[in-house]
Write the structure tokens for this entry.
Amino acid sequence: MNKAEIYKFITNNPVFFLATIENDKPRCRGMFLYKADEQSGIIFHTGSNKDVFKQISKNNNVEMCFNDFKTGKQIRVSGKLEELKDTKLKEEISSHPTRAFLKPWKEAVPLDVFYSNFKVFSLKNGKALIWTMETNFAPKEEISL
């Protein structure tokens, strides 16, 4: 797979698992992708009150795992997260139809408080590993994103 195919795969499989570290112990949870492309990287969000935000703040090295269970393909992407503080992007994300679940939070507090607690991250320049059952025992080949 090339970069464009990897980003398409990620976009088509927006629920992913994010692994972080807390006190030298791995932590993994399901997350919901906002978007992924070569220019923006892999973008997702969380809240500043969440453990995942605290873990990323202490160590921004993460691994993401995207699966397509229909094809049996998995792509793992590792790299460093960057926090994006652009209010226009936060407004775009929080107003997007796929993010209706954010509306009650956004309306419950002053907008500046919402934007300061709504944390957006991007992973750029990561390394992708593609896995299938057929390639299970083959040497791993990292693809730079």
